[in-house]
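Escalated from tier 1: adenosine-5'-diphosphate holo job.
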Amino acid sequence: PPFPIRLRGPVQRGFGRGGKDLGCPTANLPDESITPISTVAKTGVYYGYAQVIPPKDGESRLRSEDTKVFPMVMSLGWNPFYKNERLTAEIHIMHEFQSDFYGLEMRAVVLGYIRPELDYISREALIDDINTDKRVALNSLNRPEYQKFARDPHFELES
Ligand code: ADP
Ligand code: MG
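Tier 2 regenerated the structure:
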């Protein structure tokens, strides 16, 4: 696929599959906003950068450090909730947030593919793999050619 792929949309509630309990919350993008990737990319795990945009007027419980650009891993997969007829993109941002950010705009620049979706015998096996994915993502993003994407014009950057 033609990386970088730029995505944006308000963060949607998922179906509480326990991401938070296992230390790996994943923020969901709405269907309409994943078209740029679902039409070109295969299912599996990707890496890149993501940012949560604070609301222009309203209150937000996020701290200013929560709205920086961070490395992320993204899972693109068929959603069992919709009988596997719909794709979903779920993004884990590599940062400890002060609070949830449902409803806020999330922007992402997807830079590469890590691996296909696998079937896991347990949630723990899945989490093990996610930890590997995070290391792969951080290693890849360390390359100088990728670091410029943390300052991509798609993001809101401090002046
Ligand atoms: P859901 O099923 O609603 O997606 P999760 O357990 O996957 O529930 O939690 C996702 C939510 O957690 C996100 O929508 C966001 O509001 C919050 N969140 C907190 N920290 C993170 C993070 N580091 N990455 C992604 N989402 C996070
Ligand atoms: Mg989730």
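Residues 28 and 90 are 5 Å apart (CA to CA).
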